[in-house]
User: Fold this.
Amino acid sequence: MKTSAEAVIIGGGISGCAVAYELAKKGMKDVVLLERRFLTSGATGRCGAGVRMQWGTEMNCRLSKLAIERYSRLEQELEYPRSIEFRQDGYLLAAATETEMSQFRENVALQNRLGIPSKMVTAEEAAEIVPFVNKEAILGGSFCPLDGHLNPFHTTYAYADAAKRLGAEIVCGIAVTGIETSNGRVRGVFTTGGYISAPRVVDCAGGESKSVALMAGVELPTESERHQILVTEPLAPVQGPMFMGFMHNIYCQQTPHGSFIMGRGDPSEPKDGRITSGWRFMEEMAKTCCYLLPPLKELSVIRQWAGLYNLSPDRQPIYGPVEEPEGFYLATGFSGHGFMFGPVTGLLLSECITGAPYTIDIAPLTFSRFKAAKLPAELSVV
Assistant:
């Protein structure tokens, strides 16, 4: 492991690996990524792996649109010899109330203005998109055919392999134990494998990002909440799009291998970093799924697991530098959608760090926003 670097990245999920690749691509020669366990061992490897452009805030729409555009050509760009299994079968967002239908209409108008081809659908049209949906349980919804799904493991490995080919060093099994600062700027990191001097440190630690930031004297207004997912036995393909309902609190996707992955949110979930599974999730998930997607009640559950949503107050990511210490950068607060934004996180953080022109101005998403006028909260979150 190097003892000095131009930049140290903390966290080996999609965000960290994408930042490492983009920095190396821009010519930064001494980039070190540190992961205390193994690549994808955090939220990336535990996510539902859906990607969508249907959001209610402009920044999330713009970020996801660019991310999906980049995902569509990522295998070629990264020269990955396997498949990242990117499929664009769409997302069906189901509305349960007139209030939600009204909100969806506003969201679709925003999305269309930004070039996202979403549209409103009736309950009957929704049942044509996902034929076994319970039409009596929904009023309609919105649909975007370019939303989709991909494999989080292969996608992260593709970024990591490309970063290493460009000279970045990726070190697993090494934990960061401290961040050295002096005179208002970053000097380096202490690790279980020794000290690395570096003028730049990037916090891509997901559920642990608040703890990492505290090492640099930065207190983030985030919290990490347990979210659970289950997977069923596989079936022949019967559902292309992701089915999602915010008020019904469900997302359900059939993977390319035939299994159904589904999850839900629960504000009473613990926020103490645990990633164990609970019986209550299984019970509530079964009730919701059997009501909204009745034929799936015959499926057997193979297993369930949990990961951490790192929640920001407005449910939008926190990007870029902090005021102090200089040289400390954030890519956190994704609120369950860090994998979705992976390619754009790497791009925008690398532009910020190297001083390149921004593809999307991240000023509204920096840490300083919590001291000034707040962004509107993103409501389209399960």
Notes: DSSP finds nine helices and 19 strands in the chain.
